[in-house]
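Q: I'm teaching a short session on how sequence maps to structure, and I want students to see two examples side by side rather than one. Could you give me a first protein with its sequence written out and its structure tokens following it? Keep the formatting plain so it prints cleanly on a handout.
A: Of course. Example one:
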Amino acid sequence: MKITKRRLRRIIREEKASLLKEYGPDFDLEIAAKELKSLQDDGSMDKIAYQAFEHAKIWSSASDALDIRLMDAGLHDLAMDMRQLIELLNKIRKTTGEATIQG
């Protein structure tokens, strides 16, 4: 997947703003950037993305097979938790994939 410089700049700006908002003004972007680079260089980000993708497929398959049965059994919260888990795994995969592209 190719990414434009404009898109990359926007992603970096958004991530920087998000980090500063989440971690406050004491958050050291330089240290975070070095650590992210280290994670990219040693292949950790690719491993995380791969595992998230594989587990999302497994949970998605289970959710598809069980969703209606769980709802019919009154286990709405469990069905919703499964859906949220799949969304979280996909978010992790997407985030680690974008971080890999940026590196």
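Q: Perfect. Now a second example for contrast.
A: Example two:
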Amino acid sequence: MAEINRKFYRSWRGPGPADQDHWSLVFDPDTRRLRVRHEWQTCRHDGFDDLELAEFLKQTGAAQTALIDSLFLVARRMAAWRYPVCRTEFMPGSGE
């Protein structure tokens, strides 16, 4: 089965407009593991590194912060979908 790849951060390393870094969260269904892929491209070379998720989360920087923010956003959306907030309206005699 094919890997599932979700980009979560991009930055420009310059000086050229195509000189970029991309970070993706990658799920491998065969091994059932998550990892972070850092891809870079410049006018002279390109490449990528795969990092274990725990290793990446130990780092600091904008890419790590973006991943954490993305994960919490997904968690909040899942919780809202699964456990919708119950709203009650004031009812006379309810003690409110």
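Q: What should students look for in example two?
A: Point them to this: The chain is about 30% helix and 35% strand. Also worth mentioning: Residues 87-91 have pLDDT under 50 and may be disordered.
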